[in-house]
Structures are given as structure tokens and as C-alpha cells.
Amino acid sequence: MSNVAIIGGCGRLGLRISLISANKGHNVTSIDIDEERINEIKQGCLPFIEHEAEIYLEQALKKKTLTLTTNYDLVAKAEVVIITIGTPVDSNLNPSLEPVAGVIFDLAEYFKENQLIVFRNTLAPGIVGRIKTLIEDKTGLKVGKNIYLAFAPEITDETPSIHDTLKTPQPIGAYDENSFNVASKFFKTLTKGKLNWVTPEEALLGKLMKNMYTYIQNACANEFYLIAESYGVNIHKILDALRNETNQELQIPNPNLNAAGPGMHKEGWFLVDRVPFTELVTTAFKINESIPAQVVQKLENYKLNKVVILGMSNKPNSDDPRSSLSYKLRKLLYYKDYVVGCYDPYLPEYADSSVLSKADAVILMTGHKEFEDLKKITELVNNSNCIYVDINGFWEETRSKATNGILKLNGKVKKA
Description:
Elements: E1 3-7, H1 12-22, E2 27-31, H2 35-42, H3 54-63, E3 66-69, E4 80-83, H4 98-107, E5 116-119, H5 128-139, E6 148-151, E7 170-173, H6 177-187, E8 195-198, H7 200-231, H8 235-241, H9 264-272, H10 279-299, E9 306-310, H11 326-335, E10 339-343, E11 361-364, H12 374-381, E12 387-389, H13 396-401, E13 406-408
């Protein structure tokens, strides 16, 4: 059992590892600047959706293995310090060291001999050497000798399930064997996944490559959608025709109007800033970011006044809106002078379903389980002439009856 201090411990990433650590026998101090969120968690309430995490929080509070505070002083009592601060990009898409450096400056006086410092968030690989130097300069301690440093990004997808972390592999980026051994001893208490010793750059590149591989696959699917559109055919009939007996596509995902998510707007740039041939990553970004505009262009073929967006979060059944392309779509629709409504049962500011009433068009952005029954959606809309846009093929009616993502239930939609 260790005393663990987690910086940013009430954020999505920080709270997840806080709850897991607190339920795996560690005494955890979650340190955050958000006092309102701290008080909410102390009352036993999760500040965001994290499926099946309620029991983790309940048990941690009951056993008193989780402390929540704004006080950095408690870092001095910890054997393990986990920092969940990431690397933003500036206006020129260059990684910014300032937030991480600021945390190191704030914590340096509390770092002590034989502590393990773990960076958990996605960082630009090019700055890790600077982080090591800053820690050594500010503490007077030598990494690998009397203080230990590891970079261990969360490798799970950005899913709202706490259990993913318990079984996934965990690369541990360390400059020296001592740091790896100390870090692996800690992470063995948290996950049954394999632990590999890699360099800090390799650990972070692995995280970035995993995320970008999924992102590039989404871009490929979206380009296939545009190609099918150019032929006037239904992309979902093509994909369904490729299904085998196990009901799986041949590695071709469905098109995705909301192919975004936390970090996707910046992580690709962390990968490409050192190589001359970056067309694959940069083109994927251009394709995925342009799909909302393609849909808005399609709407110009119809006489519409009110358009409602279904889903504002960045993934299904989640309340995480970060980097969601729904907000980009909303802005594009405003520019075209549509009356724009937004409905998302997971976000309080958009939870009023009455906004659907009398919509002329409904655009599915995020496939929440609450949207699965198209009949219920049409009843809320109460407009027989409404068109439904679903390029993902979320609704069966779209896969079988739509014109490449545009569904006209009564076949009487008026062209502009």
C-alpha cells in the first residue's frame, strides 16, 4: 500500500485513476483546483458519467482511502505522485510546455527522495527531456538515483467505463531501470495488463499512434462515404453487403459525422512536427473536420427553416463535450440562417427534448442509446415532412431506405 497524490485528481482522467488506486489498497489524495467538484465528489456524486464507477467512489469514501483537497502540501507525504496535466498547443499548433512546467514549479518544494513521479496524460514526445531536466534542476535530485520518473499514458479508448483501465496493457516510459521497476511495482497493483519498459518517447508515441490510427480509419470511412455520395449510392448498403457470418465489416468502420474527441485536434500535430511527409495524418484531419460542412451543403437542397442536432457530446452515452464536432456543425448552421436547436440528454444545457418539435431536419451527431428508437424521435419532432440525417447508419431505417444518409420517411420532402 502506498500514499498516492494525484494532481488534477478530479478531472476525467485523474478521478478514474484516483478511484482505481483507492480501491486497490492505496491511500489516495486527489488534488484539484475545482472546489465545487471536490465537494460534489465528497458527497458521493460523480461529476461526470463514468459507467460503473459509482461503486468505486462509494467504497473509497466508506473505507476513507480517498481524500480530496486543493492543498499541494500533501504531496510531500506521498510515495507516488501522478500528474494528469496535458500539453496544449498554441495558436500555431506547437506544443506548449508552460502548463506542465508550471505544475513542476508548484510541486518542486514537495518532491522528496525516493518518490515516484508519473505523468499520466498525453504529452508531446519532444518535451519529455525538458521535463526531466526541470525536475532535477528544481529538486536537486537525480532521476533514477534518488527520485524516479515515469511516463505512463492511459492507453484505453476514451470510453466512459472505468473497467478498461484494469485490463489494458500499460507501457511505462522510463529513462532508467530503477524508475521502471518502481513504476511497474505500482502499476501491477492497478492493472492485469502487460507492463513494458519503453523510453518516454516510445510510451507517448504509442498512445498518439493508437489514437491516430483510429482517427485515420474514421477518415477513410468518411472518404468512402463521400465517394459513394458522388455516385449517388448508399454507403451502408455497400458495407452491409461486405458483412460476413459473424456480422462484422471487413475492417471498414461506418462513416462518422462526429469523428473527433479529446485531443484529436492536437495529437496529430504532435506526431508530424518532425517529419517531411505527413499527408496521411493531416489529410485525415482535413477530411474528418470537413464532414459537418458537407452535410450542411446537402441541406441546401431542401426547403428548411429549423434544424436540430441530436447529440452534443463527443461519443455515445457520454457527457463529455470536449472537441465534439457538434459545436462546429451548430456554428455552420447558424451561418446559413437556420433556426438551430440542440438536444442531448447527457448535457443539462441541452436536455430539453421539446426543442425537436416541428423541426424540418434532424441531424444525428452522437448515437446515444436514448436515440435508438427512431419512432420516438419522430413523435417528438411531430413533422411528417422532416428529414433525418444519419451518415453513421445508426438507425436501421437509414441503412436500408436513406439516400446516403438522408432519410425522408414520407418521401415528400420539398427540394429547394
